Amino acid sequence: MNWARFHQAAIRSHGFLAMVSVVLLVGVMHLVSCTTDNGYLRYQSLRVAGWEYRDSVEFVVDSLPTSGTRQLSVALRKSSSHAYPYTSLTMAVHQTWRLGDSTLVNRIDTMECVFNKPDGMIRSKGVSLYPFEFSLGTVMLPTHATGRVVIRHLMNQQSLPGFESIGLRME
Question: How far apart are the C-alpha atoms of 163 and 153, rounded to whole Å?
Fold first, then answer.
């Protein structure tokens, strides 16, 4: 259903007030889900059938409201319905930060994300999705800094099944 049909149906069946309420609710949910106290949290969807080696995921951080040392972490949501064939995942994380003036900071990290405990049990609890979060370290950023963080997997297998989404958290 396209937006025009939705608009007409909403006015006919529930009236204009119901449609405005839905739009406001979606807007508020978007704002609440994407920010934390002076922080940043975004998720990008992945193809659960397979995250391709050539497919990188990009996060854009636009003008931080406050300065300070930020803790960065990568969040993964692993699907229980599509088996991931390994106990860990290796990723490359490329950060580019513009620090207000013309200063650019580039940082490339390789991170290994281990999903199981030494006894073989999974480190997360979930039903259809297993959430994981892995620390990327800290970075000192001034007010109004902007950044770009690009993540891709470094596994030998071209297509990795089992990941629903990947996120970036900064607090």
Answer: 11
Tell me whether strands 159-160 and 129-141 are parallel, antiparallel or unpaired: unpaired
Please tell me the pTM assigned to this model. Answer: 0.74
pLDDT in tens, 3-50: 556 556 655 655 544 444 444 433 434 444 444 456 789 999 999 889
Q: Which residues contact 107 (CB under 8 A, 6 or more apart)?
A: 94, 95, 97, 139
Degrees, nearest 5: CA angle 91-94-97: 150
Tokens representing 72 are: 């960065």
Q: How far is CA 31 from CA 34, 59, 74, 165, in A?
A: 6, 16, 20, 19
pLDDT digits (tens, 9 = 90+) for 113-162: 999 888 877 778 877 889 999 999 999 999 889 999 999 999 998 899 99
| E strand residue ranges, the chain | 40-45, 51-52, 57-61, 68-79, 88-98, 104-114, 129-141, 146-153, 159-160, 163-170
> Among 170, 150, 144, which Cα is nearest to 70's?
170
The pair of structure tokens assigned to 90 is: 């290796």
